[in-house]
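Support reply, case 0932

Customer input (verbatim):
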Amino acid sequence: MTARTLDDDLRASASARPAHEALVAGEERVTYAQLDAAVEALARELAARGVERGDRVAVVAPNGVPAAVAIYAVLRAGAAFVPLNPTVKEDKLGYVLADCGAVAVVCDPRLEPLVQAAREHAPQLREVVSALPDPAAPPAGPAPAPPLSVDLAAVIYTSGSTGRPKGVTLTHANMRFAAGSIVEYLEMSGEDRVLCVVPLSFDYGLFQLLMSVRVGATLVLERGFTFPGKVVELLERERVTGLPGVPTIFQVLTGLNGLAERELPDLRYLSNTAAALSATTIAAIRATFPRARLYSMYGLTECKRVSYLPPEQLDVRPTSVGIPIPGTEAWVAREDGSEADPGEVGELMVRGAHVMQGYWNAPEATAERLRPGRWPWERVLATGDLFRRDEEGFLYFVGRSDDIIKSRGEKVAPREVEEVLLSAPGVQMAAVVGAPDDRLGEVVCAFVAPADGAVLDPVALRRHCAQQLEDYMVPARIEVRDALPRTPNGKVDRLLLAREQVPSA
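Our regenerated output:
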């Protein structure tokens, strides 16, 4: 049997259950047969416009049917898609289009002026498609040749703490393996109905689409989390069985009055990634959604997913991000490359078929992240994240190696301070960053947002921290804000907060 591609998954689901709902987006409902037909029409349109196997095609659109169609149409045309958030600015869009050498863009009609303006930075861009072709119309051309499982499927740009975003390159085989492994431990089936409020341009949202199509499930797409009440309405109306989220989403939901009293009998599982859940947030989630299984997970774009905590382990080790996903290995390494002992902090290393091929046009950055593996041809992923493991092999996130705050000669992991702040009454969100200091090197700065109706006192919060943390870890400054800034992917924007602490020249 030949190795399957991502598009093979769509063809299989369309063949097995053509009348089953594939996508729900607002008032639009699309079956698998309709999705397959729309993908076929756009794939032929792209091929007729000169898109060839191996080309890169950017997709710039909000969560909705057109974005999903575009992703699979690019794949069916034999090309690789480059998902970009619809809030992207012209300079970044131009940089990405030029960096990956995109020959075409599929975009929301309202974003076409932005794309046209960005063409100035990307002279190789030939085609801009802002309207999906009619699947019932005669095809634009012959069916394109199908890709192989080893072909490039996507270039996903991810921002680091400094510098330009880097393009993570993933093959069909990489992405299908990751999707299949996650499907396995989430026990997904064709009867699932997954609500996706995170952007499809974010790999967490993207994989909700890939996993749902793989098993023939229904994906309910919402454009964002601006109106939490609407999300609750969708959970009920669409009989949602799975809700993927990030800590900020769950913190807002668990703060809604009356949500814990709603039964939501169909909701089977909740999953979290992007940042580790605090023990306080985990307890709030379980109290609000008592019938659903909660999967605390850890991952990064360079391999999609690393670990998950089996829900039955939440009471035993609530702060752990679990064990390696099925079919992979992960371990904590010292600076010399040897495996760290239990309890010892080191860099997390990952081995498996989901590990990226490298960064696009960035050989030095690739060499830093992909290290020699067990076999001469193999490369393993050095995540750059600091972890420890316990005696039973469960993993614990300590912090990003480049997020560590160095104050008074000591190293401070922001997450540890955030955990303590989130345990204080009335604190709904917390973010900790370092600020330059001539005497101490850096000082610890904290930003907190209150739960509805709560009034927070920075002095009392510092006292709370002093009771639970070493003195060098206690924030020098705590600022209360109505809300904390977020990235387009829903994470707390720590980089923005950190930049605010740097004095202007």
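We compared this against your earlier run and they match. Two observations from our side: The chain is about 30% helix and 25% strand. Residues 14 and 32 are 5 Å apart (CA to CA). Please reopen the case if you see a mismatch on your end.
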